[in-house]
Each structure stands twice: as structure tokens, then as C-alpha cells.
């Protein structure tokens, strides 16, 4: 994520002095505290008994019995509010293929704030999969727990299929909703469905093994209203118009991601505009933003700088850019400065858009700094 601030040298020095004082005080106090605590413990605390082993779903960390291989995810965000419930929602289906590393009769997978409507398990190698005894959402540790009637076998692969519904809330985490208005007479409200997965939010978009080491390949498909554009980490493969549950929508599928962590996933459905690098460049570079911002040329500076910065890093790290495209998108509502999602970097508007009519040179330097930071992650 893009972090960091620029501060003056004087402020910096004062900060260091004050900081050193604070650290010294903390150390002194904690020494005194631990001495006092030991005394009290000796005096009053009974000897501690070893805690009973927890069930795997009571631990915040995933068990090491299963590891993901690939996901096939379809998500359908609704960009209009449902009149009867007053909610913006998304529906989804996901199939995760996972490898069993140690025999187990329980599947523990992250899932938060999703209502499951369908759940099934099959074996990948033709053998019959264990049947499901019961399943529930373990809310404190954010797990979907599936207890089975027999063991999953080490060395075998299985596929867990789920269908679910979630709220497309304006909470800046997971799959969420960003809003803005366009035009003046009268202003028209526009809704964007977008993502911020760091640090533990992918589990709010679909059930997943949501720890950074649990890398997998992701096949993404988005369903979206006609006239909207869908983006994800990989290049758009195909868009077709289909009818789903009686509604006409566009179905856009994306090239599979490299093996990667869940927190780097990104997908966006919007009515944004874009500008792109000239045809024939090695990597397709696109800058996405509100149509009006693109029309005013606010993405031009970012587009101009991205190619040279990528090339600089390729030489500096002696490593070529690993993807076929580089999308960068400016979101009206975004919690961090920017987030380094592989192939689809998300920014708050002030970290990507440069408005020659109102931005300062300091803003320009900040934009170059944040873009460089995020591209280095690639
Ligand atoms: C993903 O699932 C859909 C159906 O849900 C299927 O048509 C498609 O072939 C699957 N894609 C992959 C890569 O498994
Ligand atoms: C609104 O939500 C209700 C209840 O979940 C659902 O039955 C209905 O189909 C939804 N309407 C639309 C237009 O999606
Ligand atoms: C999920 O279920 C809960 C409890 O029934 C309900 O309050 C909530 O609105 C549901 N969420 C969605 C997005 O339908
Ligand atoms: C889908 O339908 C819309 C509205 O009819 C049309 O504008 C669009 O070009 C179609 N898209 C595809 C991929 O056929």
C-alpha cells in the first residue's frame, strides 16, 4: 500500500528527539511493570494449567491440512439498490480446488459476512468425496466450517463449490461500493463496485483460504449491466451478452492470474473511461477514472510516467514485468493511498490524477512517488 508522508527536517529532528524520549520512558516503565507483575504473580497467582487443545476453527490461523490450487469465481455486483431490502448486493459462485495435505474430516475456510445459499463437495480424481455432516459460519474467527462424515485423504484433490450473497456496502473493504456524481444539470449518481482486499478482506468477497502463503491461480468472471466495464487482475478475455435469472447482463471473463495471494486480487465494475499507451507497446498500460476526469486530461501525467517507471524497474531488478497489462484506476472512495493489486492497481484519486488547472508541483511529485512505489511491487 502507498504509505508515507513528507515532513520538514526540523519537524523530523524534533520528532526523533521526542520519539527517543518516549521509547526510553516506555522501556523504563515496562521494566518496573514486569518486576512488579512477577512479584504479584508469585504472591497470588495459582500455577497455570495447560489450555485444552482448541478445535481448528477456534484458531485464527488456518490449519495446515488443506491448501488451495485454483479458484473459479463468478461475481455479479448490482449497482442499483434493491427497493424492497434497501441494500446494494452482489451474488457469487466459487469453486475452489484444493489439495489435501493431511487426512482430515473438517474443511476450515475463511468466509465473512457472506450468506451461503449452496454448498457441495466433489472429488477431483473420480473417487467419491466424503458427504457433508454439517456446516456453519464460525463468526469470531471468520470461518466457514464443514464437518464431513469421513476423511479427506492426503495427496488427493477436491473441489468445494459455493453460491452466496453479500452486501455491496460502502465500507471500503472487500468487494465494496464507491459512489460519485457526474454532470451538473442535474448531477447523476454513479455507483462503482470495487475491491480493497488488504489485509483480510477477500473472505468478504468469496469463501477462500485467506492467508498470504495460501497462493492459488484465480479464474475470474464478472457479470455486469450493459454499458458498464469490468476489470480484474488479468486481461479481459471475452465479453458476451447473456440472460441470467431473467436479466440481460454482460459476462466478462479474464485470463487466469499467476499463482498469487488473495490480498492482491482486484476487480472493478464501473462506467469509467480510460486512456491507454500507444498500440504495439510491449505491455498495455491503461489509466482508468471517472469519465469527466479522463476527459479533462487528469490521467495523462500517470500514463506518461508509467511506461518509463516500469522500464526503469525492469532494468533495476533485472526482471521483466510479468503480466500482459498494467491497469491503474482512480477511485472516488478508497481507504489507503493506493494498493498494489497485481495488474490492477487501485488508487485514491489524489494519488493518481493530476489536474493541471488546480494541482501543485507537490501533488505531481506525490503522484510520481506513489506510482513508483506501487509499480515496484509488481
Ligand atoms: C468455471 O466455471 C464455469 C461454470 O461455473 C465453467 O463454465 C468454466 O469452464 C469454469 N472455468 C474454469 C477455468 O474452470
Ligand atoms: C430484491 O430483494 C428481494 C429479496 O432478497 C428479491 O426477492 C428480489 O428479487 C430483489 N429484486 C431485484 C430487482 O433484484
Ligand atoms: C444475510 O442474512 C442475514 C440474516 O438473515 C440478513 O440480515 C442479511 O440482510 C443477509 N444479507 C444479504 C446481503 O442478503
Ligand atoms: C450487449 O448489449 C448491449 C445493449 O444492447 C450492446 O450495447 C453491447 O454492445 C453488447 N455487448 C456485447 C459484448 O455483445
TrEMBL record:
<keyword id="KW-0378">Hydrolase</keyword>
<dbReference type="InterPro" id="IPR001930">
    <property type="entry name" value="Peptidase_M1"/>
</dbReference>
<keyword id="KW-1003">Cell membrane</keyword>
<dbReference type="GO" id="GO:0043171">
    <property type="term" value="P:peptide catabolic process"/>
</dbReference>
<feature type="domain" description="Peptidase M1 membrane alanine aminopeptidase">
    <location>
        <begin position="301"/>
        <end position="378"/>
    </location>
</feature>
<keyword id="KW-0479">Metal-binding</keyword>
<dbReference type="GO" id="GO:0006508">
    <property type="term" value="P:proteolysis"/>
</dbReference>
<dbReference type="Pfam" id="PF01433">
    <property type="entry name" value="Peptidase_M1"/>
</dbReference>
<keyword id="KW-0862">Zinc</keyword>
<keyword id="KW-0812">Transmembrane</keyword>
<dbReference type="GO" id="GO:0005886">
    <property type="term" value="C:plasma membrane"/>
</dbReference>
<dbReference type="GO" id="GO:0042277">
    <property type="term" value="F:peptide binding"/>
</dbReference>
<keyword id="KW-0482">Metalloprotease</keyword>
<feature type="domain" description="Aminopeptidase N-like N-terminal">
    <location>
        <begin position="68"/>
        <end position="264"/>
    </location>
</feature>
<keyword id="KW-1015">Disulfide bond</keyword>
<feature type="binding site">
    <location>
        <position position="377"/>
    </location>
    <ligand>
        <name>Zn(2+)</name>
    </ligand>
</feature>
<feature type="binding site">
    <location>
        <position position="373"/>
    </location>
    <ligand>
        <name>Zn(2+)</name>
    </ligand>
</feature>
<feature type="transmembrane region" description="Helical">
    <location>
        <begin position="12"/>
        <end position="33"/>
    </location>
</feature>
<dbReference type="InterPro" id="IPR027268">
    <property type="entry name" value="Peptidase_M4/M1_CTD_sf"/>
</dbReference>
<keyword id="KW-1133">Transmembrane helix</keyword>
<dbReference type="InterPro" id="IPR042097">
    <property type="entry name" value="Aminopeptidase_N-like_N_sf"/>
</dbReference>
<dbReference type="InterPro" id="IPR050344">
    <property type="entry name" value="Peptidase_M1_aminopeptidases"/>
</dbReference>
<dbReference type="GO" id="GO:0008270">
    <property type="term" value="F:zinc ion binding"/>
</dbReference>
<keyword id="KW-0645">Protease</keyword>
<comment type="similarity">
    <text>Belongs to the peptidase M1 family.</text>
</comment>
<dbReference type="GO" id="GO:0005615">
    <property type="term" value="C:extracellular space"/>
</dbReference>
<dbReference type="InterPro" id="IPR014782">
    <property type="entry name" value="Peptidase_M1_dom"/>
</dbReference>
<dbReference type="Pfam" id="PF17900">
    <property type="entry name" value="Peptidase_M1_N"/>
</dbReference>
<feature type="active site" description="Proton acceptor">
    <location>
        <position position="374"/>
    </location>
</feature>
<keyword id="KW-0735">Signal-anchor</keyword>
<keyword id="KW-0472">Membrane</keyword>
<protein>
    <submittedName>
        <fullName>Aminopeptidase Ey-like</fullName>
    </submittedName>
</protein>
<dbReference type="InterPro" id="IPR045357">
    <property type="entry name" value="Aminopeptidase_N-like_N"/>
</dbReference>
<keyword id="KW-0325">Glycoprotein</keyword>
<dbReference type="InterPro" id="IPR034016">
    <property type="entry name" value="M1_APN-typ"/>
</dbReference>
<keyword id="KW-0031">Aminopeptidase</keyword>
<dbReference type="GO" id="GO:0070006">
    <property type="term" value="F:metalloaminopeptidase activity"/>
</dbReference>
<dbReference type="GO" id="GO:0005737">
    <property type="term" value="C:cytoplasm"/>
</dbReference>
Amino acid at each position: 500500500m502507498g504509505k508515507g508522508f513528507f515532513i520538514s527536517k526540523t519537524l523530523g529532528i524534533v520528532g526523533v528527539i521526542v520519539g527517543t524520549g518516549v521509547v526510553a520512558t516506555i522501556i523504563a516503565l515496562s521494566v518496573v511493570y514486569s518486576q512488579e507483575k512477577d512479584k504479584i504473580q508469585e504472591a497470588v497467582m495459582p500455577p497455570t494449567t495447560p489450555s485444552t487443545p482448541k478445535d481448528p476453527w477456534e484458531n485464527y490461523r488456518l490449519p495446515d491440512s488443506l491448501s488451495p490450487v485454483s479458484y473459479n469465481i463468478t461475481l455479479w455486483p448490482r449497482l442499483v439498490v434493491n427497493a424492497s431490502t434497501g441494500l446494494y448486493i452482489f451474488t457469487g459462485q466459487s469453486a475452489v480446488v484444493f489439495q489435501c495435505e493431511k487426512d482430515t474430516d473438517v474443511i476450515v475456510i475463511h468466509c465473512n459476512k457472506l450468506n451461503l445459499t449452496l454448498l457441495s463437495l466433489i472429488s477431483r480424481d473420480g473417487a467419491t468425496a466424503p458427504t457433508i455432516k454439517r456446516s456453519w459460519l464460525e463468526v469470531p474467527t471468520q470461518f466457514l466450517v464443514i464437518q464431513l462424515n469421513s476423511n479427506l485423504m492426503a495427496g488427493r484433490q477436491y473441489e468445494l463449490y459455493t453460491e452466496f450473497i453479500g452486501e455491496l456496502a460502502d465500507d471500503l473493504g472487500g468487494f465494496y461500493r464507491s459512489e460519485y456524481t457526474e454532470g451538473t444539470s442535474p448531477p447523476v449518481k454513479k455507483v462503482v463496485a470495487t475491491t480493497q482486499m488488504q489485509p483480510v478482506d477477500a473472505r468478504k468477497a468469496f469463501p477462500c483460504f485467506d492467508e498470504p502463503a495460501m497462493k492459488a491461480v484465480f479464474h475470474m468472471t464478472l457479470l455486469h449491466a450493459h454499458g458498464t466495464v469490468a476489470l480484474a487482475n488479468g486481461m479481459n478475455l471475452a465479453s458476451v451478452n447473456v440472460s441470467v435469472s431473467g436479466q440481460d447482463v454482460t459476462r466478462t471473463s479474464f485470463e487466469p492470474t499467476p499463482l498469487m495471494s488473495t490480498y492482491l486480487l482486484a476487480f472493478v465494475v464501473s462506467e469509467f473511461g480510460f486512456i491507454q499507451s500507444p498500440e504495439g507497446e510491449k505491455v498495455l498500460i491503461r489509466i482508468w477514472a471517472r469519465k469527466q476526469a479522463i476527459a479533462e486530461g487528469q490521467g495523462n501525467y500517470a500514463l506518461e510516467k508509467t511506461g518509463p517507471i516500469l522500464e526503469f524497474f525492469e532494468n533495476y531488478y533485472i526482471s521483466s514485468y510479468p503480466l500482459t497489462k498494467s491497469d491503474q484506476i482512480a477511485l472516488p472512495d478508497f481507504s489507503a493511498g493506493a494498493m498494489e493489486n497485481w495488474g490492477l492497481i487501485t488508487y485514491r484519486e489524489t494519488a493518481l490524477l493530476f489536474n493541471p488547472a488546480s494541482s501543485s508541483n507537490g501533488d505531481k511529485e506525490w503522484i510520481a512517488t506513489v506510482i513508483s512505489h506501487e509499480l515496484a511491487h509488481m
